[in-house]
Design goal:
Elements (H helix, E strand, L loop, with lengths): L2 H18 L1 E2 H8 L3 H9 L7 E3 L2 E4 L3 H14 L3 H6 L11 H30 L9 H12 L13
Antiparallel strand pairs: 1-3, 2-3
């Protein structure tokens, strides 16, 4: 092999490596999260960049799978700290199955609560009582809300 061919091969390998990396805008677009969220996740240790090209952070394509795991965890109601505990530094999941079962039980309880709430609201919408305050079903719903049995959903901030 000539020196020119070796240089060309090295350049092609470097180009392939560079194109394999994704800049922050591409990751943001493909993952559907703002760049500020990516920076925050990096600050929290959930993801890591491989470096920079100019001022733009670069990421390994595997970050997209990690972001999908984070999104799934967030959708299930896990905190970012809980999700961080489920991710090994090398990017592989290390998920506690008991924690998943407990979260599934929590979701089952919430689904039951929401079903009761939905049914009560449907009844109140169609109730023939002259006033909702005269409707026994609506009164039970109010009592449940007053006792905390019907809890308002936790407010979540995107990316946090």
């Amino acid at each position: 092999m000539t020196e020119t061919t070796e240089t060309a091969d090295a350049t092609e390998t470097a180009d392939a490596t560079e194109t394999a990396e994704l800049d922050i805008a591409e990751v943001s677009h493909r993952a559907g999260v703002p760049a500020s969220t990516l920076r925050y996740y990096e600050e929290k240790g959930l993801i890591s960049s491989t470096g920079r090209r100019g001022l733009r952070r670069q990421y390994d394509p595997g970050v997209l799978e990690r972001l999908a795991l984070i999104a799934l965890g967030r959708t299930a109601g896990f905190s970012l700290d809980e999700i961080a505990d489920m991710l090994a530094p090398d990017g592989r999941p290390r998920i506690d199955r008991r924690m998943l079962a407990a979260k599934a039980d929590e979701l089952d309880r919430r689904i039951r609560e929401l079903g009761v709430l939905r049914d009560s609201l449907r009844h109140a919408a169609a109730c023939p009582a002259p006033s909702h305050m005269e409707c026994p079903t609506f009164r039970r719903l109010l009592d449940a809300a007053a006792s905390g049995a019907v809890a308002a959903p936790r407010r979540r901030f995107p990316g946090r």
